[in-house]
Amino acid sequence: MPTMFPASQVDGLIRTGGSCRVNVAVKAGFSCGDKIYVVNINPVTHTRLPQYVRGKRGVVVGDHGVFVFPDTNAELRGEKPQHVYSVMFTARDLWGDTTPANDKLYIDLFEDYIRHADPK
Amino acid sequence: MSKDHDHDYQPSDISLRVKAVESLLVEKGLIDREAIDRLVDAYENKIGPHNGARVVARAWCDPEFKKRLLADGTKAIAELGYTGIQGEDMVVVEHTANIHNMVVCTLCSCYPWPTLGLPPNWYKAAPYRSRAVIDPRGVLKEFGVDIPESTEVRVWDSNAELRYLVLPSRPEGTEKLSESDLAKLVTRDSMIGVGLPKTSA
Amino acid sequence: MNGIHDLGGRHGMGPIDIDPEQPIFHAEWERRMFGMFILAFAGGHFNIDQFRSAIEQMQPSRYLESDYYEHWLHSLETWCIKNGSLTEEEIDQRMKKLAEGAP
Hints:
The structure holds 3 protein chains of 3 kinds.
Chain A: H1 10-16, E1 35-38, E2 57-67, H2 70-73, E3 82-90, H3 91-95, E4 104-110, E5 114-116
Antiparallel strand pairs in A: 1-2, 1-5, 2-3, 3-4
Chain B: H1 14-27, H2 33-46, H3 49-61, H4 63-71, H5 73-79, E1 90-94, E2 99-104, H6 113-116, H7 121-124, H8 126-134, H9 136-142, E3 152-157, E4 163-167, H10 179-183, H11 188-192
Parallel strand pairs in B: 1-4, 2-3
Chain C: H1 28-42, H2 48-56, H3 60-65, H4 68-83, H5 88-99
Helix pairs in contact in C: 1-4, 2-4
């Protein structure tokens, strides 16, 4: 049931916020350096996977830890805590060969959004 | 299931509508008016880019702090007391001689409030959000920043709950400046990555 | 969802309106809306993902043309109505009353 949040607790709220990290041990399926591709999902419900990276190939460059999964949480279907990875894409892989060669795009992808790329 | 909530009101009514919603929620004991006042005061008058500027100036002066900042942004920024809403999980990305960073939230408006305050309108609107990822150099030109072809432009899309702060490069010729004078050179836009620090106060 | 909010890479959205001197809040209603969102969130009316999800379901042209904090009003109303805290009729009646200058 929604409650009234009192003025007396506003200062504390501002300073503490509400992290979406989940303090639970979840095995990481990916590590730095892993080549990945992004799944092609098109849910009609909420997702934090933008269209412009779906199906694209990238490299895992970091592991931010375990967070609440927005796709399920938005539908009250559970927090489904999982690792969030920093993934790097070259601008050319995203937008084509007329894009500057040096440029990169970094985005935070939940484990459910990525798969190991087939070895070439 | 009732039909989707659809609005017939005209934009000029929005002020009236917000008043109506607030008065109803207050009457029903769901919203505390004074709590709204306190939140507005905090984000309009207290929390802002001057916070992030202090973080940057500290990093410019203290190499050990800079190391901690890049390794764990949340913890290091908390040393200066900047914590909380929309800054619970911070990542700091550093410009180097060959790398220029730029931050965007393509899906909405995610922004590191404790260090930068509330985002400007352009950050939250369609033109920046759409173009930052596909044409960052064009966007930077619009902001008056020219990046050489040999420099790598890194765009960070803060689509999850990590919030990004750019650590710009210390301007040349500032060796004699105190930390607080250095902080005055650090602009909000330089910590988003669409501007550069001032070269003199 | 593949909504209009998923803007990365789209063309045709126009020039960036840089406006360097802009205030943090452009009008009093923005201040009130900002505070109400945070308090409704802290009070458990919705989680952050639900909040964003409702914004994404705004009518696309309205999403693009409205002031930013109108997105927040849309989401707050959506969830308050879903939760039974408010009804459309109540909001309309209160607006009428306020417009007539009733105390």
